[in-house]
Each structure stands twice: as C-alpha cells, then as structure tokens.
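Fold this sequence, please.
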Amino acid sequence: MAQRMATWRRFTRRKTAVFGLSVYVVILLIALFAPYLAPRDPATQDVMKGLQPPSAEYLLGSDEYGRDILSRIIYGARISMTVGIISVTISAMIGTFLGLISGFYGGKVEAVIMRIVDIMLSFPGILLALIIVSTLGRDIQYVMIAVGISGVPNYARMVRGAVLGVKENEYIEAARAAGAANLSIIARHVLPNIFAIIIVLTTLSLPGSILSAAALSFIGLGVQPPTAEWGRMLGDGRAFIETAWWISTFPGLMIFISVISINLFGDGLRDALDPRLKT
C-alpha cells in the first residue's frame, strides 16, 4: 500500500500527466453517456440542411447529408475508444504470452518465436493491419483484430527483454530449488515483476492503436458508414475541406486531443513506475 501511495504521489507531481488523465477520463465519460449527451441521432439525415456551418442549431455544423457533427463526434468516441482499447488488449495478451514463453524457456522456443516476431516487424504496423483487414474484411471486429495483431511484436520483444532480466534473480533460483513448476514461477514470480512494464507499454500503445484504426477508416478499410467514427468522418470531409472545413476539422481535433492526452498520461505513468525514481 505504501508503495502504491508513493507511486501515486510521483504521478500527481507531473501536472501534465494529471491533465492528460483528466482529459482521457472525460472522453471515456462522453463515450459512455453518448445517448444522453448527443443532441440528435447521429444517423438522422436532413439533406435540406446539409453543409450547415457551426451555429446555434448545429453547434459544430452539419455534413453533406445534414447529420449533426457534434452528435456524430460524441458517438464516434464510443467506436474510437472501443477499437483502441480492445486492439491494445489483443496486442498485450498475445505479445505478453509470446514474450514470457520465449524469454523464460529460451533455446529453440525463443528462436522460433522471435524469428516470427522479426518477420512481423519487417512490415510497418499500418501495412500489416492493411493486409489483415483486406484479407478478413472491413467489419469493426476485423479492424480491432488487425490493429491488435500489428502491435504484438512490440509487446513480445519488450516482455522478452524484461523476462531475461528477471529470471536471473536469486528468488527465481530459490523457487526452482524448492521444486516449483515453471508455470508457477512465471505466474507467481516473473509476471508480477514485469507487470508495471506491461501497463506502461499498454498505455503508450493506446494512442497508436487509435491512430491506426482512424487511418484504416480514413482510407475506407475500417469502420463503414453510416457508423460514426472519427477517422471515417475525417475521410468523408476531404471533399469539402475548402467549402465546409468543420466536417474534417472537429473529428481531427478530437483524434489529436485523445492521442495527446493519453501520451501525457502514459509519460507520467512511466516516470512514476520507473524503479530508478523509487529511491
């Protein structure tokens, strides 16, 4: 408990980290309570009021179909946050498993796993996601799978490096001498000691997942219309950037705010959990 309080105090000293966490929590609350916050149904069309600039009736303007931009941004937070969180969870679970196994057992197991990871790293993350989405389909679940798999190599390499350092400690040798099974050692001694690294990596990977999902939607391979999603809204507004700047500007601004807030939070969390600062 004392260690957790000390970590929290170190975190709260970083005002930018607290600000980032606060903004991110607000975005999550907006996504959670979207039906109560959105002034209109995000899919309702009124072509007679298409391309309306920001006004008292449409606070952030309307798109070419007369749909309220504010309502679509509020509902779009649900999709963007869900895709980002689930895809990062997929990356963390698969990557952590591969890193634990390869780092702990070593030998041929490590060689095979890390060569597969090296092959995946030879493709840019967004290109790998493009290949997966193009193969599986354009539904939202495939977008989450694609973005999640593209992030696996980073987790695998990072976790493997952490495990290589932890497994040489004396308490691991003591557990082996006491007859503990390998899986028990991994679960009780290795994983708890690298958990902070996994949490920080997850936090810092979330902005990249949100951007990757938005990029796929931007080029038409992600979330499909009429579903409201920030990347898709950004792409749909390209044709009207000179005459109706608000269609692309506000979704792009939300992507920027989300990514920068999570990055600020992740940087502060990394510094708070840094073992070199615990003294």
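The longest helix spans residues 69-105. The chain has one domain: 2-42+60-277.
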